[in-house]
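hey team, just a heads up i'm posting the complex here instead of the shared drive bc the drive is being weird again. everything in one block, sequence lines first with there labels, then the predicted structure for the whole assembly after. its two chains so it's a bit long, scroll down
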Amino acid sequence: MSDLRDLYQDVILEHSKTPRNYRELPAANHKAEGFNPLCGDRFTVYVTLDGDAIRDVSFQGSGCAISKASASMMTQSVKGKTTAEAEKIFGRFHEMVTGHAPANQDESELGKLAVFSGVSEFPVRVKCATLAWHTLHAALEGTQDSVSTE
Amino acid sequence: MTTAARRIDPHQHTVPAGGGLNMKQVRADFPILQQTVHGKPLVYLDNAATSQKPRVVIDAIVRYYEGTNANIHRGVHFLAEKATEEYEAARLTVQEFINAAHSREIIFVRGATEGINLVAQTFGRANIQSGDEVLITAMEHHSNIVPWQILCDEKRAKLRVAPINDEGELLLEEFANLLGPRTKLAAVTHVSNALGTIDPLKRMVELAHSRNVPVLVDGAQAVPHMKVDVQALDCDFYTFSGHKVYGPTGIGVLYGKAVLLQAMPPYQGGGDMISSVTFDKTIYNKLPYKFEAGTPDIAGVIGLGAALAYVNGLGIENIGAHEHDLLVYATEALSAIPGVRVIGTAKEKAAVVSFVIEGIHPHDIGTILDQEGIAIRTGHHCSQPIMERFGIPATARASFAVYNTRQEVDALLRGIGKVREVFA
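-- predicted structure starts here --
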């Protein structure tokens, strides 16, 4: 069960049960929908961009514990950041969950998001952990099409 | 009889007195079941996706490639003749298995999906015109929805969908009402892959025929579990995949009534499907070769023949009874767990239990069970409209085959206990 606990850490379970910033943002000027057709996960990410700064960010939708917790913690980590900073965190996060992080990588840079490092042991769940991030990326790019992790 | 068929000794597998199965022997027939996954004995409950293969099927394929391999229907040499003989013997095994009137009504395809596409692109394109209708049911697999959507788009025809009730049973009266003057074909599943519902097929065919509507049946989930008699059903087309009935992947069967197949244009052009070719005119081969262009999956066909012979050896009724016992046992036990809801509670069901657990996504259930060595399917099961009908994004699905046991159902229940622990 140790492997399983690496994936389902308490922080992740807690966020999946009580996701933060789980609401529609009426003032959002960027928005995108993300869909994982394999498991039916579907999220909408709302962003209020002020110039380059992410003033506010939220999400809504349904998905597994990993995808929901990831979306919840993503909103916490990118709120107040610039779009470039958010994209950089996504890059680091992606490297970590796919097991491609450089050996000397300082995971503390990712802060709380480091709890998702166990995902790299569960390759089929990578798309769950990254769905909200791909959706955020699409929202920031202004893409109106829905994104898919398939 | 194929060589593979002769190698099956039914008495080796069945207990004559009780009519039951020798489970120890059955499990030993499937080499893959002996392995462990994440340190736990494999509990394979994803049989509706694909079944495992018994040794006799694997051996038949190896034997073919080691001792028989040659192209069929053309060579005069020894191996070509032997390969053709084994290939055609498998066709007779299939014919007998589903009780078709003629072997020329058995067409080898890649699987049920190709069988449906074949009918859509030949019978469908020839007979369905603008304003016509194709009738399906609300519990079709995507493979019995999309080919008709493609055809309907092309022909400006209309796809009609017969609804189901909350138990996952077809509303037969609505089905009858939807059979209208413009209905040119009813394309229906025999057993729902996501819900396990067995459709009242004989009655549906009668209703359709009373309005002169031919019926195609997607039998992918039925053939592994119950006796299928296409003449008794009187359906016009019946298709299934080999890999769900202990055969190899990439091979399947389309049965069609000869009178319909004869009138249909060919599906693909190429070798084997012609009797003569000039640049001015090509004369198509007779049935079933008209629909078997190109070199087929010869090893697959021989493997499928071996698989059906294996099923015959065990007895399809014995298999069905064993799986029904597991279905009842699992359904009762799962329904008794607080927060668990079984999706698909039809009175007539095959060996499929779809379920959801309150507050826990099926994907998480699947990952945790996998750590226990238990393979189930999670997701929408290629049946998104069914998920929508029940207002859920996905389900967890356990589906049974002949080699599964009550002990494995118990392992599933213990696994669900672990799932609830993690999410407690």
